[in-house]
Amino acid sequence: MSSQSRVAIITGANRGIGYAIVKALASAFDGDVLLTARNSKLGEKAAGELNASGLKQIKFYQLDVTDESSIELLRKHVVSYYGGVDVLVNNAGVLYKTASTVPLPEQARETVKVNFTAVLNLTKALMPFLRSHSRVVNVSSQLGKLGKLKSTVLKAKFASDSLQESELVDLMNQFVKDVEAGVHIERGWPPESSAYYTTKIGLNALTKILAKDAAALSGKEDILINTCCPGWVKTEMSGPGATKSPDEGAETPVYLATLPQGSPAGKFFYNKSIIDF
Ligand SMILES: NC(=O)c1ccc[n+]([C@@H]2O[C@H](COP(=O)([O-])OP(=O)(O)OC[C@H]3O[C@@H](n4cnc5c(N)ncnc54)[C@H](OP(=O)(O)O)[C@@H]3O)[C@@H](O)[C@H]2O)c1
User: Tens digit of pLDDT for each residue in 168-207?
Assistant: First the structure.
C-alpha cells in the first residue's frame, strides 16, 4: 500500500445506511473504503461479509465518533497509511424513540454529542489532511430544516451566512441547557420531544461553515462538503415501515461522495437535488 492510495471513511457503518454506503462506494470509488464502527465485533463482521462478496477493498477500522482518542487513532492511521483523506461520510447518528424512557436532558446531551459535536470534531481532525478534490458528506435529515424551529430569532441565527462555528456550538449548548431547565419548548426549539431535530438543524448549519473552511485551505482545491437527507429508510432507526431500502438511502450520500469538480458545496441535498435548509 503506497501513501498515495486513496481512501474513503464512513462512520457508523456496521449496519443501516452506513453499511449500504460502504458497499456502494466500493464500486463507485477507486481506493480503499474504511468501514468504521464503534463496536469492533460488529464492524469486523460487517466488513467480513462484504469482503466475502468480493469487495476486498473494504477494510474495518474501529471508531467511536464521540471518543477523541478514537478519532486521534483513526487520524494517525489514515495519515501514516494513506497520506491523506479523499472521502469522509459522517453517517453515524442516534435517534431516541418517542417511547424512550431516557430522561430528556440525557437524550439531548447524547444526541448533540453524536449527531453534532462528533461530526465537528472528526471533520476538523481530518480537515488538514483532506486532499484536493476530496468530498465530505454529512448524513442529516429533513427533520433538520429551519422550519422546525418555532422561534424566529433562533431561525435567523441558524440561517445566517455569517454564523461562526463558536456561535453555533454555543447555540447547541444553549439547547441542552434549555432542555435541562425544561424551557426548550417556550424558547422556541422544535416542540418534538426528541433532540434529533435540533441536532440535524445544527449539522446542516455546520456544513455551511465547514464548506467555507475547506474552501479556504491553502494549497488545496475543489474540496466539497455537503449535507443530505437519505430519505425515510428501513433501518433500525426508522423501522420496517419506512419507504426506502438501505441501498436506496445510500444513493444521495454516494452521489455527494463522488461529485465531479465544479459541483456546489455547503448545500443540503435530497434525492440528488439541492433543497432548502
Ligand atoms: N433511517 C432513516 O430513515 C433516516 C432518515 C434521515 C436521516 N437518517 C440518518 O442516517 C444516518 C444513518 O442512520 P440509519 O438509519 O442507518 O441508523 P441505524 O441503523 O440506527 O445506524 C446508526 C449507526 O450509527 C452508529 N453509531 C451511533 N453512535 C455511534 C458512535 N458514537 N460512534 C460510531 N458509530 C455510532 C451505530 O452503531 P451501533 O450499531 O454500535 O449502535 C450504527 O452503525 C444517521 O445519521 C441518521 O440520522 C436516517
Answer: 999 999 999 999 999 999 999 997 767 999 999 999 999 9
Q: Rounded distance, CA 214 to CA 217, Å? A: 5
The atom of ligand 1 lying closest to the CA of 114 is 31
Structure-block grid coordinates of residue 186: 417556550
CA-nearest of 44, 275, 263 to 145 is 275
Closest Cα partner for 155 from 113, 115, 111, 187?
187
Reply yes or no on whether the pLDDT at 4 is more than 70: no
Residue 1: count of CB within 10 angstroms of its CB:
8
* 196 in active site: yes
R_g (Cα) of the chain, nearest Å: 18
* Strands of 273-275's sheet in order across: 58-62, 32-37, 7-10, 85-90, 130-139, 224-229, 268-270, 273-275
C-alpha cell at 99: 417511547
Q: 209 and 220 in contact (C-beta within 8 Å)?
A: no
Residue 140, CA distances (Å) to 207, 267, 268, 269 in order: 10, 12, 9, 9
Kindly state if the Cβ of 215 falls inside 6 Å of ligand 1: no
- Indicate the fold that domain 7-98+114-143+200-275 takes in CATH: Rossmann fold (3.40.50)
Catalytic residue (choose from 19, 61, 96, 196): 196
Confidence at residue 54, expressed as pLDDT on a 0 to 100 scale: 96
User: What are 135's strand-pairing partners?
Assistant: 87, 224
Cell of 119: 461530526
**Residue-wise pLDDT tens digits, 119-175:** 999 999 999 999 999 999 999 999 999 999 999 999 999 999 999 999 999 999 999
